Amino acid sequence: MSFTAAQITEKLQGEIVGDGSIQLTGLASADRARVGELTFAENASYFAAAEQSQAAAILVAGPFVSSSKVLIRVPNARVALARVLPVFFPPEEQPRGIHPSAVIADSARIDPSAHIGPNCVLGDRVRLGARSVLMGGNDLRADCQLGDDVCLFPNVVLYRQTQVGHRVTIHAGTVIGSDGFGYVLDEGRHRKVLQLGNVVIHDDVEIGANAAIDRGTLGSTVIGQGTKIDNLVHVAHNVVMGRHCLVMGQVGFAGSTCLGDYVVVASQSGIADHLKLGNQVVIGAKSGVMRDVPDGGRMLGIPAAPDRQAKRQMIAMQQLPELLHRIRELEKQVRELAAKCSG
């Protein structure tokens, strides 16, 4: 599959500098680009490498000029890259139909355009929307509702009453709607609190591999529109995430925490229960959040503190060995002076 530089420029609503009729046969980074391919450069060093590559054209942002390459100038090269990648590498299309090994309840409703792969199980009253794909080994318990253009990779499990919006992707091995971790101490034993709620996932969400999102105790655990969740993330019961949040790998949320919109939580952070993180909050990697964070807050460390304060504490800790050494030297000098004075 190839496109002219002019066609790519039109798709990106950019500006072309050079021969728009040149054929572009693919897209690659500068160090891997072959003759006839498109590459990209978002800064001067990338552009220098792209200039030396075999690529025929360069996707650029900024006032770069080239005597040997066609340039496609856009406001943001990385955004343009994300938009043009599916043009050269369209997603694999799955044929409509149901594999003979699938087990489907009579009351399930499957859109004729959907694809159900081998060894899938669909329980009572499950609904699967148009062009949705179950790749294989998927288990959808009773009353699960999936919208249009949903893709479940192999071995994704949806517990009962899970609701999934349109254009949602869930990667392999993830479990949605498992029991929340709820127990009360009763006469010396941990008695389980039944988890009777569900999980609601809104449109345009993507969830990575081997994540676990627990259903609510009574209400719903909610993942907001456009939110992206990385691999190995745990979301406890009754957590509510806002729109367009980013959650990196190995993050854990305790129960009933509420996130605003555009929250970013970096890898290996833990969020305590019943907290509120406001809009556009950023949590740095390996942080332990123990209190509410207002809109726009940036937190770091264990326990998490405002990032500037946390960085000052880290710098102070790095200086601590030298400070201890200086204190010992001062103590030694004081003892020597005291000995002289007493003599």
Show the helix and strand layout:
Layout: E1 3-4, H1 5-12, E2 15-17, E3 23-24, E4 38-41, H2 44-52, E5 57-60, E6 70-73, H3 77-88, E7 97-98, E8 103-104, E9 109-110, E10 115-116, E11 121-122, E12 127-128, E13 133-134, E14 139-140, E15 145-146, E16 151-152, E17 157-158, E18 163-164, E19 169-170, E20 175-178, E21 183-186, E22 189-192, E23 198-201, E24 206-207, E25 212-214, E26 220-223, E27 228-229, E28 234-235, E29 246-247, E30 252-253, E31 258-259, E32 264-265, E33 270-271, E34 276-277, E35 282-283, E36 288-289, E37 298-300, E38 305-306, H4 307-342
Parallel strand pairs: 4-5, 5-6, 7-10, 8-11, 9-12, 10-13, 11-14, 12-15, 13-16, 14-17, 15-18, 16-19, 17-20, 18-23, 19-24, 20-25, 23-26, 24-27, 25-28, 27-29, 28-30, 29-32, 30-33, 31-34, 32-35, 33-36, 35-37
Antiparallel strand pairs: 1-3, 2-6, 21-22, 37-38
